[in-house]
Design a protein that fits this description.
The structure is a single chain. By secondary structure, this protein is of the alpha/beta class. The protein is built from seven helices and ten strands. The protein has helices at 38-45, 68-74, 91-99, 105-119, 134-146, 164-179, 191-197; strands at 2-11, 14-24, 27-31, 53-58, 61-62, 76-79, 152-156, 183-188, 200-205, 208-211. It binds adenosine-5'-triphosphate (ATP). Adenosine-5'-triphosphate is lined by residues 11, 16, 32, 34-40.
């Protein structure tokens, strides 16, 4: 469980988030126009940006301003809108690299193939990441995040750039992740897909958040 308490963010005098309050339990969807502050909010929760004011409480602990590295170890994982895998490594090797946070190499290798299967990439597990389609790259990024064993998964625009068939693959994967008790936030422009998968939806507009 995560609580965002009165979080604001100002970049060079530009107020991007205005006293955002949000409780995250199960999967929360956030939609809203370009530049409304969705990615900034996820970056603050993941420890990649510091809020100008306000607090982030994760599992009862104040984690405001904590480093991204510490937060990953605590169980907060973020999947960026633009996939950035190691292109010269295979799909499984990419997942092994992420698994090394929690496992030794042998365990990481075994679990990497399990994760490939879970995300639907078992047939391309030994292909180089550079050979993957856009849809497969999104699944790989989610697989790499799962390898860190998150309790809270932050998915920034997981459907962007995907045709409907691949977007549905991501929806089905998120359903499987949810059924394992992981909480999360998903941002999206495509509200129909978001409503399919999120337990509650919010709209972000001009740095403010409202149910809807
Ligand atoms: N590092 C930064 N420095 C200055 N301004 C920034 C920075 N990061 C984001 N912004 C600004 O903050 C605002 C919100 O951006 P953000 O990326 O959070 O919006 P978004 O809702 O995720 O948009 P999109 O749907 O296009 O990803 C934008 O005006 C953006 O230009």
């Amino acid at each position: 469980m995560l609580e965002v308490v009165d979080v604001s963010k100002v970049y060079n005098g530009n107020v991007v988030l205005k006293s955002v309050n949000l409780t995250v339990k199960d999967f929360v969807g956030i939609h809203g126009p370009n530049g409304s502050g969705k990615s900034t909010l996820l970056s603050i929760i993941a420890g990649l940006e510091k809020p100008s004011c306000g607090r982030i409480i994760f599992q009862g602990q104040d984690v405001t301003g904590m480093s991204a590295e510490k937060l990953v170890k605590m169980g907060v994982a973020i999947v960026f809108q633009i996939p950035r895998p190691f292109k010269r490594l295979t799909v499984a090797e990419n997942i092994v690299a992420a698994s090394l946070l929690r496992k030794n190499h042998d365990e990481a290798e075994k679990s990497a193939y399990r994760i490939c299967k879970f995300v639907g990439l078992d047939e391309v597990a030994d292909s180089f990441a550079s050979q993957l389609s856009q849809g497969e790259l999104k699944l790989l990024e989610i697989g790499r995040a799962l390898a860190t064993e998150p309790k809270l998964l932050l998915l920034d625009e997981p459907f962007s750039g995907l045709d409907i068939e691949n977007a549905r693959r991501v929806v089905r994967l998120v359903e499987r992740i949810k059924s394992r008790g992981v909480d999360g936030i998903i941002t999206a422009h495509r509200t129909k897909l978001l409503r399919n998968v999120a337990d509650i939806c919010y709209e972000m507009r001009g740095g403010k958040i409202a149910e809807g």
